[in-house]
Amino acid sequence: MIDWRRAAPAMALLGWLAAGCATRAEIPAPMPRAEPTDVGMSQEGLARVDSIIEAAIADSAAPGAALAVGRHGRLVRLRGFGRLDWREDAGAVTDSSIWDLASVSKVVGATTAIMLLVEDGKVDLDAPVSNYLPRFGDGGKEAVTVWQLLLHRGGLPAWLPLWQEAEGRDDYFRMIGSTELIYAPGDSMVYSDLGFISLGFIVEAVTGQGLDEFLERRTFGPLGMRDTGYNPDTSLKPRIALTEIDTVFRNVHVHGVVHDENAYALGGVSGHAGLFSSARDLSVFAQMMLDGGVQRWCPDGEATCAASENPVRVTDAESIARFTRRYHSASRRGLGWDKPNGRASSGDYLTYSAFGHTGFTGTSIWIDPGLDLFVVLLTNRVNPTRANQKHIPLRRAVHDAVAQSITDVNVSKRSGATSH
User: Fold this and answer.
1) Cβ-contact 151, 327 below 8 angstroms
2) Which helix (H) or strand (E) holds 229?
3) Exposed/middle/buried for 28, CB within 10 Å: 0-12, 13-18, 19+?
4) pLDDT tens for residues 77-128?
5) Is 308 exposed, middle or buried, given 0-12, 13-18 or 19+ CB atoms closer than 10 A?
6) What's the rounded Cα separation, in Å, for the pair 223 and 226?
7) In the chain, N or C: fewer CB atoms in 10 Å?
8) Model-level pTM greater than 0.85?
9) How far is residue 3's CA from residue 10's CA, in Å, rounded to a whole number?
10) What is the CA radius of gyration of the chain?
11) Cα–Cα distance between 340 and 100 in angstroms, integer?
């Protein structure tokens, strides 16, 4: 598991030294900030975004929220709203509050890991999953490919309550292996947690490492994402947003452990859920994706410093383009990533080049190369109950208001976008 003590500066330095960094100067600097007008955005427009979030919290959409907005390589918003819990004495949300990302783990975690392994030549997207996980081929799944799992077109059920029966990772592996398909691979799109659990198992089988260890070594560590990982240390609980009051499985108010039952039963590390992070860290990840897989800002704080002596490269622009494009007219999916379509959480004004994902707990990340923009919105809307759906209009309203605050290019509603 990740040593979350690296969140403390001294331990962070030790972690970097262990990874091969010689000096503190090699630890990536935080993203530079800018006034909205410096990056073609309206201060009044972004103030409206703040008001939308504050009104939603007042309307009980969630106890709190964190927002990060970046454009042209600089942050124009990085702040918290409300509190980590509904209790009056709960801590205030900050840009470094830590959130259970739920299914945002699918893209920041598992999809990124698979993308890196494809680049390494260790995973073939067109290969059957059973090439890497032989038992996966049971139940008529021998023809299902890695590509199809990423597109949610592998024929697997959307979800099964495996946590009610499975005991440990081997048991999960056996039960998914014996699960029969509900449709022919490639015929339909059914969003499937089981497919992404399997993708996490592929990463572990190919690398001989845990998914958490691989991502820490190849992505989170190099980018200096000190608040990001699985199974956060209990010392970080004061910074972690509480999620649901679980009356079915654990019978506690879930705090500091993954909300998703299957991920919890898997030990907190899974391809479909389990990742924790902050708005500050996810802004670093989003900007890396906009910059073609490279961290382009310099230790002195200058933005878009592509000529840095030792830039941090996580992936390449071709891989990002391959994984984030739309592949089927009947589906809004890229490889792992979601795409704008209809009433998607992206709202109506992000461009068709945008890609993003949401999480069941109330989290979302959207990255738009067409507008050179990213928006990270993190909430704990499942606190105290998953019945709360007020986060759905909140997400769309925030993304629309952010896009409409852009002043240096004409931003218009996508063709085919629906009204609120």
Assistant:
1) yes
2) strand 229-230
3) buried
4) 999 999 999 999 999 999 999 999 999 999 999 999 999 999 999 999 999 9
5) middle
6) 9
7) C
8) yes
9) 13
10) 20
11) 23
Neighbour-count burial of 220, counting CB atoms closer than 10 A to its CB (0-12 exposed, 13-18 middle, 19+ buried): buried
Comparison of pLDDT for 307 and 394, the residue scoring more? 394
On the question of pLDDT at 198 being above 60, the answer is yes
Query: CA 202, CA 283: separation in Å to the nearest integer?
Result: 27
Return contacts of 121-130, CB within 8 angstroms, 24+ apart. 122/206, 122/207, 123/202, 123/206, 125/150, 125/335, 129/154, 129/198, 129/202
Spatial contact of 239 and 97, defined as CB atoms under 8 Å apart = yes
Question: Omega into 384 within 30° of 0, i.e. cis?
Answer: yes
pLDDT of residue 332: 81
Query: What gap in Å lies between CA 369 and CA 354, rounded to an integer?
Result: 6
Contact of 155 with 122, CB cutoff 8 Å? no
DSSP string of 385-414? -TT--THHHHHHHHHHHHHHTB-SS---PP
Catalogue the long-range contacts made by 251-254 (C-beta closer than 8 Å, 24 or more residues apart): 253/384
Which residue in the block uniquely carries the two structure tokens 């007042």? Answer: 58
Give pLDDT, residue 344. 86
Cα 149 to Cα 40, 141, 142, 153, 359: the distances in Å are 39, 11, 13, 6, 18
Confidence tier at 60 by pLDDT (50, 70, 90)? very high
Q: Cβ distance 279 to 372 under 8 Å?
A: no
Q: What are phi and psi of 189, to 5 degrees?
A: -110, 115
CA dist 306 and 298 (Å) reads 8
* C-alpha 348: how far from chain center: 21
pLDDT at 169 (0 to 100)? 87
